[in-house]
Each structure stands twice: as C-alpha cells, then as structure tokens.
Design goal:
about 25% helix; binds calcium ion; globular; about 550 residues; binds alpha-D-glucopyranose; alpha/beta
C-alpha cells in the first residue's frame, strides 16, 4: 500500500476523553460529548483527532492501564458510540488516531490474571523475576510513577516489572506471542477504519537482556539506559511495520522520552519501510525543568529556542516534525512559558511560536482558549497516580504551602481539568458533578465568551491555522532562526522561492527594545498576524508576536 503521508497537511486536536465533554451527565467526559463538539473541533481548522485511551480500564493511570484492547469503555459510550464518531469524523474529512499502549497493560487484563497463575500460553507474557538472594529486588530500577519498578505478586510468588504504576505491569515484548497480540490489536482498529496510532512510550518496549542494574547517576528514571531504545527495538518496530502498517495508509506517531533529533532519524527517516512516521519529543517541554516537570528550573528561552531549531534543522528534508506545546502529561503552557497576567497575549504568542514551524501541529484540548494551571486549595483533590506518589514521597521537609505549590507547578492534573465551555455551572462540561474539579477561572475563561470576541485567543488560533493551511511556505519552506543569543525574543523565518515568512515572538513580560535583524525585510512584507493592534518599529510589547509575509 502506498504511504501518502497525508498527515503532513493536517492539524490535530488531542482529546483526553475524561475531561473533554460529558454527554450523558454522569460527570465523566465521553464520546457522546465529542460528537456534540465535532463541529467545534472542525471550526478550529483541525482535521485530525488523537484520542488518549478510550479502552476499558480500571483507571489507575487515566486509561493508560488497559484491561481490554479490543473494546471501548462503556462509560465513554462503548463501541457503538465510537463507530458513530468514526463515521461522522470521516464524513467531515477528519482523521482519527487512537492511543496504542503496549509497553504495559493493566494488572486487571486477563493476560496478567492468567500469567500470574502460570496459565499457558500466558506464563511469559510479562517480565517476571524471582527475588535475588537475600530477598532483594531483581534490580535497582525505579518506576517512573511510584517507587521501585518491581512489585511482588503473591499468586505467582515472583516479582513483576512495571516501569510505570504498580497496576501497569510491563509486557514481555521478547515473547513472539505478545508481538502477535499487538498485531492483532493494530489490525482490529485499522480494519475498522482508524487512521493510525499514537504509540505510548514505544521506545521502552525492548529491555536489555539480563536487566542489569542502572549505573548512571540519573536525576530521574533510574534504569532508563537499559530500556530506552533497547536492543531489539528496531527489530520489533520493523516487524510491526512489515506485518501490519505497510498494508495501511496510516500514521504512526511515537512517544519517545529523552530522544534527540539525530536519534529520532533512526526511526522516522523517510525511506521505504521506515518504522515510524513522527515522534513526540520532550526537549521542547524541558525549557523549565530537567527531564521531568518534577525537577523544575527557571524557564530558559534559549533552551527552548535551541530545541525548536535543532528539531527543525536536523529533520529537514529527511523526516517530518510533530509540533506541540501542550498535552495531557504537562502543566499548561501559559502558566509555564507564558504569563497568566498576559494570558491572551502570551497565549497568542505561544501559538505562533510553534504553529508556523515545519511539521504537523497538535493542539491539546483547552489550549486554544488559554486554559491555565489548576490550583486546588488542598492536595487531596489530586487524582493522578504520579502526583499522589510525588506528594507523599518527596519534599517532606518543606512547608505545606511549598508542597502545594510544587503540585500546582508540576502535576499533570494541572492540565486535566474539564474543558471550560461556558460560564454555566461546571463550566458547561457536565449536567452532573464532574469527576474532578473545574478550574475556578471558568467564568472568565471559556469557549462561549471567546466565540463572541473576535480578538479572543480561540479566534486567533482559527486565524493562525487557516493561514498555515493556505501558505505553501509554512508547509514547505526552509527554516532559519535569527538573534539566536537573545534571551527575550524568538525570531525565525521560513522561505520558499516565492514566499518568505518572518515570525517574531517576544517572551518578555515587559516592553523590550527591538531592532529588526538583518535579512528580515519587514518593510516590504505584509503583517498578516499580530496580537496587539498597534506595532512600534523599535519595540516589542509584552509577549508581542507578529507574522510577516513577503511574496517575491
Ligand atoms: C505516556 C502517557 C502517559 C502515561 C504513561 C504510561 O507517557 O502519555 O499519560 O501515564 O505513558 O502509560
Ligand atoms: Ca459521561
């Protein structure tokens, strides 16, 4: 089957289903809610949807702990609602991709139930090890979410590996039967008409033989050097490609923690049979932290720019970038790289900072209206497994206030509150009581209010997306960064033989002096997008952004 790489012309919208829209009033977002809002998603100019997991799940990790890969959770509307959604999305010309979570399952998946009882052929579906002499754990790896990476199972009398929560045992991908199960899952959804997958922590699926102890002094993720890009990763991904993906014109988008652009090329370089199409890198999410949001640092624009530019230039002409600034795993971007005081201005600037780069942009629900971090008054309100563990186990000697601030700043929950549709009760998200709190600012920050305001962030996203779709230079132009050493401004240009685009973004919270860099001919260009009515020749206002177009 020919790979048309249709994803290059698309803009995706990411739905984290529990908090998007509740259609039946039980307080939990669902596909009926998504159906109600399809017109809205389309009105943004988005023509692709990525669904975070919709499968049946005990919910130990927001659905990333799956107990049945071949069904849709009843609370989300079941298979019937999903098929309707798929049909309606396709009728609108929209593509739909699913989340594929196969590094681990839920411990309530029948495979695990059988594996712990050593029922064939499931005995080796997971990574089981006896205790080491002296009752020690099989190795020194840490789980990414809660404590050690090993939990003892009484039924089996052995430890199982879990790189994430205790309720997320890792599958043993070295077992060919497990790889066959994966292919079955892939075919099931692709045959139904799904257009591809976002592949959860896919670079973790092959563990080094012998599971050696981590020797590197890592600030987080102890063990990662033995399971990220493991020994058989290319073999397994090629196998999935050969046996399944090559037969469908679909998209494969790989989540790849800690990956560099050079490493990414090993997976996504466009040649016949490339294993994957795009990667979700983390470097642009680490401009205010070290590896993880839980090791916060001061925001560094230079770090962000260098990451943006390295990805743009290293992949250019060889592979395709996935562009994003928010998803369900990080606090809200305005609260991090922008300013809540200049919420609309900085929201617009952040949109421009990435939407005019080369690649396929993704927008996370609520980002388009400038939702900001949730700040509950008590740690008890948090639901995410990672947040709860971090709260109970770190910074114990700090004051309660500091510890709460730490949650606000780092928790994934900060970006998982219900989408704010209106100023009605529960932000119009549900007729019932939402499963988690609504951000208190919903009366001020909501879709309905922004629909009415032509200057709103929402309408700005629509304009920016429409522009990027109509301009060949955004899709095809080369990328060049200017004023690289500036710690206040991010400036880049895009160029084809017939068009030049100049993108100016100020990350400063004050008005700053600015001189148009050499090589940017803004005098002969047209200002096509801006976030302040008036622009000054030698200054940029707080978080000002401008996009100029020159047709040559
Ligand atoms: C990925 C997902 C995240 C999940 C984790 C474990 O990083 O994006 O939400 O918790 O994998 O599946
Ligand atoms: Ca519901």
């Amino acid at each position: 089957m020919e790979r048309t790489r249709w994803y290059k012309d698309r803009v995706f919208y990411q739905i984290w289903p529990r908090s998007f829209m509740d259609g039946n009033g039980d307080g939990v977002g669902d596909l009926w809610g998504v159906l109600e809002k399809l017109d809205y998603i389309q009105s943004l100019g988005a023509d692709g949807i990525w669904f975070s997991p919709l499968y049946p799940s005990p919910g130990a990790d927001g659905g990333y702990d799956i107990s049945d890969y071949l069904d849709i959770a009843p609370e989300y509307g079941g298979m019937e609602a999903f098929k309707q959604l798929l049909t309606e999305a396709h009728q609108r010309g929209m593509k739909v991709i699913m989340d594929l979570v196969i590094n681990h399952t839920s411990d309530e998946h029948p495979w695990f139930e059988k594996s712990r009882r050593r029922e064939e052929p499931y005995t080796d579906y997971y990574i089981w090890r006896p205790a080491k002499p002296g009752g020690k754990l099989p190795n020194n790896w840490d789980s990414n979410f809660e404590g050690k990476a090993w939990t003892y199972d009484d039924v089996r009398g052995e430890y199982y590996l879990h790189l994430f929560a205790v309720k997320q045992p890792d599958l043993n991908m070295d077992n060919p039967l497990v790889r066959e199960e994966v292919k079955k899952i892939l075919r099931f959804w692709l045959d139904m008409g799904v257009d591809g997958f976002r592949e959860d922590v896919i670079t973790f699926i092959s563990k080094e033989e012998g599971l050696p102890d981590e020797k590197l002094p890592l600030p987080a993720g102890k063990g990662i050097s033995h399971y990220n890009h493991g020994p058989h990763i290319h073999e397994y991904l090629s196998e999935f490609y050969r046996d399944v993906f090559s037969q469908y014109d679909c998209l494969t988008l790989a989540e790849a923690p800690m990956i560099t652009p050079a490493k990414a090329l090993e997976y996504i370089e466009e040649k016949p049979g490339n294993e994957l199409d795009m990667v979700i890198q983390f470097e642009t999410e680490c401009a205010d932290c070290l590896f993880t949001d839980w090791i916060p640092m001061k925001f560094s624009l230079r770090k962000l720019k260098s990451a943006f530019s390295r990805w743009q230039t290293t992949l250019d002409g060889k592979a395709w970038n996935m562009l994003y600034i928010e998803n369900h795993d990080h606090p809200r971007i305005i609260s991090r790289y922008g300013s809540e005081k200049f919420r609309t201005e900085s929201g617009k600037m952040l949109a421009v900072s990435y939407l005019f780069q080369k690649g396929t942009p993704f927008i996370y629900q609520g980002q388009e209206i400038g939702m900001t971090n949730w700040r509950p008054d008590s740690p008890d309100k948090y639901k995410d497994v990672q947040t709860i563990w971090k709260y109970q186990n770190t910074a114990l000697n700090q004051s309660d206030e500091k510890r709460l601030h730490r949650l606000w700043r780092s928790a994934r929950d900060s970006a998982r509150t219900p989408v704010q549709w209106s100023s009605e009760p529960h932000a119009g998200f549900s007729q019932g009581k939402p499963w988690t709190s609504v951000n208190k600012n919903y009366r001020r920050v909501n879709v309905a209010a922004q629909e009415k305001d032509s200057d709103s962030l929402l309408n700005f996203y629509r304009k920016a997306i429409a522009l990027r779709k109509n301009l060949d230079v955004v899709k095809n132009g080369t990328y060049q960064e200017h004023e690289k050493s500036s710690s206040q401004h991010y400036i880049y240009s895009r160029e084809t033989a017939s068009q030049k685009l100049y993108v100016i973004c100020s990350f400063a919270k004050k008005e700053t002096k600015w001189k148009c860099p050499k090589g940017l001919d803004i005098e002969h260009s047209k200002l096509i997008l801006q976030n302040y009515k008036e622009t000054l020749p030698d200054r940029l206002k707080p978080y000002e952004t401008r996009v100029y177009l020159m047709e040559q």
